[in-house]
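User: Can you write out an input/output pair for a complex, sequences first and structure second?

Assistant: Here is one pair. Inputs:
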Amino acid sequence: MTRITLEAANRIIEVALATAAEKKLKPLAVIVLDAGGHAIAYARQDGASPGRFQIAGGKAYGAVMLGLGGRAQMARAEAQAYFIAAANGALDGRLVPVPGGVLVTDASGTVIGAVGISGDTSDNDEACAVAGIEAAGLNAQP
Amino acid sequence: MTRITLEAANRIIEVALATAAEKKLKPLAVIVLDAGGHAIAYARQDGASPGRFQIAGGKAYGAVMLGLGGRAQMARAEAQAYFIAAANGALDGRLVPVPGGVLVTDASGTVIGAVGISGDTSDNDEACAVAGIEAAGLNAQP
Amino acid sequence: MTRITLEAANRIIEVALATAAEKKLKPLAVIVLDAGGHAIAYARQDGASPGRFQIAGGKAYGAVMLGLGGRAQMARAEAQAYFIAAANGALDGRLVPVPGGVLVTDASGTVIGAVGISGDTSDNDEACAVAGIEAAGLNAQP
Amino acid sequence: MTRITLEAANRIIEVALATAAEKKLKPLAVIVLDAGGHAIAYARQDGASPGRFQIAGGKAYGAVMLGLGGRAQMARAEAQAYFIAAANGALDGRLVPVPGGVLVTDASGTVIGAVGISGDTSDNDEACAVAGIEAAGLNAQP
């Protein structure tokens, strides 16, 4: 197993924000968590509201803790709402089950962390996360 | 970027309550928060229940933290209920996504705080907040 | 039993802040709570840090919940530290046992609320609270 | 009043970590908060333990919320331990009253945020925070 270095996390954030600039998205918050759900790096663009930390953080935290990207969590929420609600309670309300939370895996498929982005639409948030993860040479699982 | 002074916050509360008196509304609680979601001023009229602090406070806190007024939050809750539910969990249950939470912006459009009102109907609560904000020379975003 | 009206609470805050201005104190936060420990009115002067809400609030909340002013709590803390520490845990950490939390009683001696002030020295905070309470025609118990 | 932009926050982190490298310090975590105590940027170096987020965060959060740098908080804790303990409870346990939490002020002396660093000795943590803040053209108050 490898891990996400601070250098890789900074690269993920740099490319995610450059992608957002190209797409002319609203100001974003981007967080990179390790395999334990703990922050490695975070950046909130000027104009993004302060609670974006909790939203981006919840997207990434839920992904790591459940081993499921935000898009997969959303599908599960639509199929079985009470499971995701209960999981959220069990995780102290720290799960935000929508796109924009993306698992990061290494070459062997092991989860080594997650990226969470919030600020624009969930689909755009996710696209920026994927772009950042791939630019860092890692695999993204939305 | 400017900020909401105590003088402006007191003016917001004064005009919000005068508006409520004209409309013969039920007793209200009015809170004014800064751009970080922290209270600048609060007033609860005689006869308003004690939990109005938490309801008015949650309307304003959610507005600041998400950068969305209560009416916009309500629309999002109706379109995607589980997102607002999850956001609320991520914000420690301090979000009340209905009208009556109104963002305050300065001339450049920067969010400098929010006003939350509770006690009458959500629509009436919101009307009093907007009246107060505008009387203080600031911009209201419901 | 009477109660602290919003008008009385506003008078308490007005006189407390006028007293602070005369004494040239640092910016203050002032909260007035009812007999249930719930906020009636709050004002934070420009330049007072945001956490003054929690400090002033804790001074007043502990006073109401224990029926003891902040100065009396401090004496108890010095005599029996573990009791105040345990009481604080039982009250969810919301007790700040220093001067500046002042009980408000009516003519019959019944507790009808409390005032909490934070921003300058504890002794100065308390003096402003007492001045405000007395100006509103109520009795202060530090 | 100005604010700490993301560009300034990134510069603070960059110079703080370069200072640590020069001094050959242990791996650090560095957080930059806005005037409301909300994260703008965070970086945790490879090898720094995950809880450094909470320690660095608590140093900066307590500074913003109380308007006192970590060194000033430590002096208060040594003079009146139960006050800082109670303030910590009132702030939900999020205060870490030691050096390494440094207030950031603008040219007029207004608090616009704080930097928190954890990983080496408190004194070294603080020196890196001050170096970063000054490199960004802002004023540091330990």
